[in-house]
């Protein structure tokens, strides 16, 4: 097992989590991910180096098969890397053993998926605080309130998922990912199960929650209108990072994707 810290910018012991001076919440250096071996090997990520800025909403776009999910999985400690390094919160996670990666995922990362994955018998509040309960951490009512307000859920906390709209259910799932204040929240096509208007509202809320709480969020999406909510958009093609756009509009993204032939 190999664990190193990012090069320190100052004296003193290197802390476990992101230092105040760090701008990157998560960083990949020369990341390579190959599936399979021999003639059937697929190089899903081909030497990707990228830094995800703290407190920003970053979207990852690219044609189908370009490596978006693979990049997310490697950055989040869900998958091993073939070579290269991943630093999460200033600590290298590439090379960690499975048990340590489980702790990284529990303590440093939040996830939001297309399917909301809420527990039907629990209220919205209980769903949101579930990660804290599972970790044996006391629930701070102020933190729950602030998270609920950031997502416009303060009047829905006593409701069960079946009593909530799809958009509200996904906001509960986002609140659940934010409640532990992880280094990064990864959202994989979070609007995939929502109609386009509700999806747009959800993304606006995701972005404002990111700003209000200073939460780093990585959004994986096919949808240029979704990615247009991001502070920065990373474009992947054939496993390589081919472009980075700052606060692009939907038209800029459509043009960039057209150039990639997607
Ligand atoms: N478990 C796996 N075994 C073999 N090949 C894989 C595996 N997972 C992904 N791949 C391949 O790696 C490449 C990148 O896949 P990935 O799922 O990361 O792309 P993506 O951009 O997320 O695609 P999509 O937009 O279609 O979800 C593809 O060629 C894919 O077929």
Describe the fold and architecture.
The protein is α/β, with parallel strands linked by helices. The chain has a domain at 55-81 and 104-259: P-loop containing nucleotide triphosphate hydrolases (Rossmann fold), CATH 3.40.50. The chain is built from 8 helices and 10 strands. The chain has helices at residues 68-75, 98-108, 124-134, 141-150, 166-178, 196-213, 224-227, 250-259, and strands spanning 24-35, 42-53, 57-61, 83-88, 91-92, 109-112, 184-188, 217-220, 232-237, 240-246. It has a 6-stranded mixed beta sheet with strand order 6-7-8-3-9-10, sandwiched between helices. A 4-stranded antiparallel beta sheet has the order 2-1-4-5, with helices on one face. It starts with 23 loop residues before the first strand and ends with a helix. The structure holds adenosine-5'-triphosphate (ATP). The site of adenosine-5'-triphosphate has 12 residues, from strand 2 and helix 1.
